[in-house]
Amino acid sequence: MQKLVLAKQIKFDQGKIELLNQKLSIFPVSVFSTIVDNNPKVVPDVYQATKESAQMFANEIKKRHKFTGQQLKSWLKDIVSFAGWGKAEFIIYDEKNFASIVRVQQSPVAEISKKKGYTDHALRGFFAGGGSASMETDLDCIEIKCVAKGDSICEFVLGKKQILKKDHPEFFKSQLWWLNEK
Fold first, then answer.
1. 107, 123 in Cβ contact below 8 A?
2. What residue range is the signal peptide (predicted)?
């Protein structure tokens, strides 16, 4: 955060917060978990809205700073931490095959969710959008480990829709079911 403040890339004004000209607000993480826990039918909307917003944001950052895919990946990882979504670590980042595996420690949504399932739908969307911008192709994201299910970390797999569907059919069916209809 200190780097952003020094570079004047984060602005706090009366009733307004901006990060790189992107309007932000601070609210409890429980908003995401409560919405999804109370109405699982909104998962596609939460995922898609977050994916589209993240992709737009990441493309703007990439263009403004002339980032390579690797540089954007590192920046996005730091934003996840800065924004309080947990500590992200890329285990695999393969631009050639359009694939990534990201581990997240201390996911607040997973830690407070009342549902004992895969819960980080907004974070999945963020990784899908950021990954799509970083690798310059449309990617999606599934969560294969989750603290809410009793795992020690949350783990996400990014890839092209058809590859995720083939390699992880059970996760694809339960987390991206609406993409089967497209």
1. yes
2. none
Give the CATH number of domain 42-181; options: 3.30.1380.20, 3.20.20.10, 3.40.50.410, 2.60.120.10.
3.30.1380.20
Per-residue pLDDT of the chain (182 residues; tens, 9 = 90+): 445 543 566 777 888 888 777 777 777 888 878 888 888 899 999 999 999 999 999 998 899 889 999 999 998 998 888 888 999 999 999 999 999 999 999 999 999 887 788 989 999 999 999 999 999 999 999 999 999 999 999 999 999 999 999 999 999 999 999 998 76
Distance CA 88, CA 67 (A): 19
Stated pTM of the model: 0.89
CB 120 within 8 Å of CB 109: yes
Among residues 4, 121, 124, 11, the alpha carbon closest in space to that of 61 is found at 4
**Residue written as token pair 């992709």:** 55
